[in-house]
Write a structure and sequence with these properties.
Glutaredoxin; alpha/beta; elongated; about 55% helix
Amino acid sequence: MKEGILYALFYLIAIGLLLYNTFGVLTIPGLIMAILAIVLVFCKKHYLVAMIGIFTAAGSFTAQYMTYFCPYCTAAAFCFLIGGLINLRGRYQQRISISILSTVCITAALTLFIFSPAPYYSTETQANEIISDKPLVYISIECRACEEVIKFLIEYDSAGIDWQPVLLGDFEKGKQYLIDKGYTGEVLSAMQPPGTVIPALVSRGEIYEGSKTIEEYFKEENHGDY
C-alpha cells in the first residue's frame, strides 16, 4: 500500500494543481490522465503509468511552447514527468521501442520549453501588437495568475478608463467573465501575448510581466493613493 502511494503521489499532486488552476481546454484531459494513472498504479500496470506521465508532460510542455507559459501547468507537467519516471524505474526494457520514443518526445518537448524565448522586459513593442493610448493588459481566463490582476484592475478602474484588457483565448467567454466581475469598458482580443508570460502589461512601449509587477505599475501611476 505504501509503495502504491509513492507511485501515485505525484499524480495526486498534479490533480491538486489542475483543480486549483483556472479550468482550461487541457484541464479535463489532464485530470483524466492523472486519475487513470492512479487507478493503473493500484492495478500494478507501472509501465503504462510511466508512459501516461511522460507523454502527458511532453504534451503540456509543447503546448506551452506553442502558446504561453503557465506556472501551474508547468508544475503539473513536472509532476506528471516525475511520476512517470518513478514508475519507469527498472522497467525501461519492457517495451524498448516505446521507451525510446518516450525519451525522444520528452527530451524534444523539454528542449523547446526550456530554450523558448525567455520572459522579457523590453523597450520596444512588437509590430503586431495592438496600438492604444491606454496601457494594454493581456489576460486569459484560463490563467490562474490573471485572476488576481483582473480583480485588482476592476477595483481600480471598472470602466477601463486608464487600462485596456486584451483577451487571449475564448473571447466571448472571457468578455462575459469580465462583465460578471464588474467591468463595464471596452474589451479587445489578441492571438498572442507580447512575451511568453501572462498577465502582461504593455505601456509606453515597455512590457511588464506578472500580476505583482502590473499592480505595482498602477499603484505608482496613481501616486500610491490606491
